[in-house]
Write a structure and sequence with these properties.
2 domains; 3-stranded antiparallel sheet; 157 residues; 28% strand; 22% helix; binds zinc ion; single chain; alpha+beta
């Protein structure tokens, strides 16, 4: 999953018509699509390894959601702030992060740190994370996957 595919999923929500959930849901607005794309532009690359989900809401808005191990993260924006919901073992916390907060980027990235996303997802397998097995070596790096069943490696030695 990359950002382009994620935006494609958002784009497809345009096709939802009035009452798309048969409980009287509103169609997804152009503005909701812009807002979802705004968040997608902000999310760090590693968050893409934790199966982000584009979820239409019956009021016409769009949530971005991650479920990772025993944790769940939902993000939405109203254009002024990020509205977040963090759940861990069914204990949930809701809050706001102002877009003009001077530590915005750090606080925003903290969501994904908390979620436990892999920083360097393996390009070859789902489960692995890349690490440098030549750390402390004099020259270059030897990048390997930590999944014993995967043989991905890359070296510039
Ligand atoms: Zn791998």
């Amino acid at each position: 999953m990359n950002k382009k595919e994620l935006k494609q999923e958002v784009e497809e929500l345009k096709d939802l018509e009035n009452n798309w959930d048969s409980y009287g849901a509103c169609p997804i607005t152009e503005r909701s699509i812009e807002k979802a794309n705004y968040i997608i532009d902000l999310i760090p690359r590693e968050s893409l390894s934790a199966n982000p989900c584009v979820v239409p809401i019956n009021d016409g808005s769009i949530n971005l959601e991650w479920t990772y191990k025993n944790k769940e993260l939902e993000l939405e924006t109203d254009g002024k702030q990020i509205i977040y919901l963090k759940c861990e073992n069914s204990f949930c916390e809701e809050g706001y992060l102002q877009l003009d907060d001077k530590n915005f980027k750090k606080k925003f990235y903290d969501f994904f740190e908390w979620l436990g996303c892999k920083r360097y997802p393996c390009p070859k397998c789902e489960a692995g994370e890349l690490y440098d097995s030549n750390t402390g070596g004099m020259f270059g790096s030897m990048i390997e996957c930590d999944n014993p069943k995967c043989n991905y490696n890359y070296s510039d030695l």
